[in-house]
Amino acid sequence: MAGSGYILIGFFVISLLTGAVVGLVHHKPLARILTILYVATHIAFSGYAWLHLGETVLDYFTFDPLGVLLLSILSILTITTVYHGFIYVKDAGNRVYSIYHAALIALVAAMSGAYLANGMTTVWIFVEATTLAVAALIYHDRTPMALEATWKYVFVCSVGIALAYLGILFLGFTVHDARLLHLSFDSISEIARMANPLYLKISFVFVLVGYSTKMGLFPMHTVTVDAHTVSPPPISAFISTTLMNVGFLAIFRIYALFSATTILPFMNHVLILSGVLSLLVSAGYMLKAKHNKRMLAYSSLENMGIVAIALGVGGIGYYAAILHIVLHSFTKAGLFYQMGQSYKVMGTYKLDESGNYMALYPAGATALLLGFLCITAIPPSGMFISELYLMKAMVGSHDYLLLGVTALLLCFVLYALLTRVLHIVYSQPREKPLHEQYKVNPWQSASQYVLFGLVIFICFVQPEPLRQLIASIIQSLPK
């Protein structure tokens, strides 16, 4: 245990020192070298977490299965995000270059802490830290739209996180045993068993609404959509995957703790309602989307809605929710990387100015088509398996109306994505782009092929370590 404590402290100290040096010393080669070394450190830390599953460290952190799984996803996507970030900011000034990478290191460290935290107070601290770190990255391009999106993101996320924490504090105030007021997940479990069900319901709604700002789930989804639109593509990839996973983790932990109480049906209904409304909103906006990155942002809302519905349905839906989170992370990150390359080639994010991508950049266009197949759960996408499990769970619970509504909304989403992606790849632009176009090295698309390849591989083979890890995550939930 002591050794794990030193490793954890060492990781955060390295994160702090690396970020400080990169941010204060405005020197591109140094920033690049230190960032690469930090990526290697994070990979090693994730490997250590795998070897110490179940250990509690320093009382405030636990290498629990869900945290370790999401930490591993973060390590993989940190590699690709740093790589594409180097390309995106290579022409920036020394100061902007350093600030970008310092904020990125801070964001990775904060998300890592949030994944492993074993108490609501600790989660709150690290989630708030992610808000500050990602704000600097959203504002990277220093445009008026970026400034507006940054302030909106900071304000709404801070209010949302405060609401989530107030929900737990409200629950804690109903208990007079001081030993339970430190708000660890174990103490919250004890509180839940003795609390008034009405207070539990209020607390869960506060948590769901509050952390929806991070998960990108209805009703607090708008802030993440705006952030996607103006952020650098590598950061959009992070916001729509690893950062959304932070919100999911916070909601899932409270759901799991409250699932042994009498409010389980209430929580399921709330999650299903939020999920269906997320699908409805995403389908509606995607049908009229005219901005390529905004289209992907609404796709993230749709997929988080699927995850919420899967949790609410229960049964094999629990497995589907976790698997979908994993696969969505790889797929959506690859799509955002590709959208950044399409901007370089076509000179625009506007749909009407986009087109003829296959002729301009065949490697990128092929990757975009492959990503479309993955994100829409068309075989051989692994997301077909997670959505199939969800449909099976609905049939098993006799939720035929929900099954019909979900399938119908997914058809609208599929149509919206299909028409837009095919227009980008094959059609001529409706309007002439006003920006300069230039060629991209096809090797820059290699990371997307690797990520999409992982998603396709999981359609055919779900590695036993992954299956066992997901099984251990959901084992305490009602069968």
How would you sum up this structure in a few lines?
With 479 residues, the protein is mainly α. Helices cover 76% and strands 1% of the residues.
What does this structure look like?
It is built from 20 helices and two strands. It has 479 residues and is mainly α. It has a domain at 276-479. A two-stranded antiparallel sheet has the order 1-2. The longest helix is centred in the C-terminal third of the chain and has 31 residues, at 316-346.
How many E strands?
2
Q: What's the Cα radius of gyration?
A: 21 Å
* Major sheet summary line: 2 strands, antiparallel
Q: Give helix % range.
A: over 70%
The H-and-E topology, N to C, reads as HHEEHHHHHHHHHHHHHHHHHH
Q: What structural category arises from helix and sheet content?
A: mainly alpha
Unreliable segments (pLDDT under 50, ≥5 consecutive)? Answer: none
Averaged pLDDT? 89
- What separation lies between the terminal Cα atoms? 33 Å
Beta-strand fraction estimate:
under 5%
Mass-distribution shape: globular
Figure out the total of helices.
Answer: 20
Query: Which strand order do you get reading across the main beta sheet?
Result: 1-2
